[in-house]
Design goal:
Radius of gyration: 18 Å
Shape: globular
Distance between the termini: 17 Å
Number of strands: 7
Largest sheet: 3 strands, parallel
């Protein structure tokens, strides 16, 4: 789960949805959860609480992956080590990669070598603003440019990751609750 940037409400909703999703798994099904932000990542064999995540990632300077493509790359390696018959990777993210060491091309090739379908759930916040400007020649006041262009590029990259790995991408605007179905 991508915590670049997030709110405690969004984190609580995602973690609640993950808890519900994992309750529906069969007893012999294995799963792990990787949570990351700019300070690093935390990988557990259970769904952590907000407090556990905050405590681990707060102010932490770490060598653990802290960008989308790197975390997916590492998760694919962890899955490769497991001997489960059927494996998938579910990625919950806003789709923005924050300076990964692995390129999109490297990640796609790696996922093909692991033979791992990736399903992505991209969350978009339409109210997010990248920057604003003022046109002083026309005296029109401050104009705001939204994150639309950036979001479309990020969504296209996620779709490429999912499609080339045999998975699928789902999009959702950030609103009240997040639901995952098994």
């Amino acid at each position: 789960y991508d915590l670049h940037p997030t709110t405690s409400e969004r984190s609580a909703n995602v973690l609640g949805a993950l808890r519900q999703f994992t309750k529906e798994l069969k007893p012999n099904d294995n799963f792990f959860v990787s949570v990351f932000n700019e300070n690093g990542s935390l990988t557990t064999d259970f769904v952590p609480t907000n407090e556990q995540i905050d405590k681990f990632l707060a102010g932490r300077e770490s060598n653990s992956p802290n960008s989308l493509y790197d975390v997916i790359f590492e998760a694919a390696e962890k899955i490769r080590e497991r001997k489960d018959a059927k494996q998938v990777l579910l990625v919950l993210t806003d789709g923005e990669d924050h300076a990964s060491h692995h390129s999109l091309k490297e990640l796609r090739l790696h996922l093909r070598s692991v033979n791992l379908p990736v399903y992505t759930v991209a969350f978009h916040d339409e109210t997010r603003q990248i920057w604003g400007y003022s046109d002083i020649h026309r005296n029109e006041g401050r104009q705001v440019l939204g994150a639309g262009e950036s979001s479309r590029l990020n969504t296209a990259a996620l779709a490429e990751i999912s499609k080339t790995s045999g998975g699928q991408t789902f999009e959702r605007l950030i609103q009240n609750r997040i639901y995952l179905y098994g």
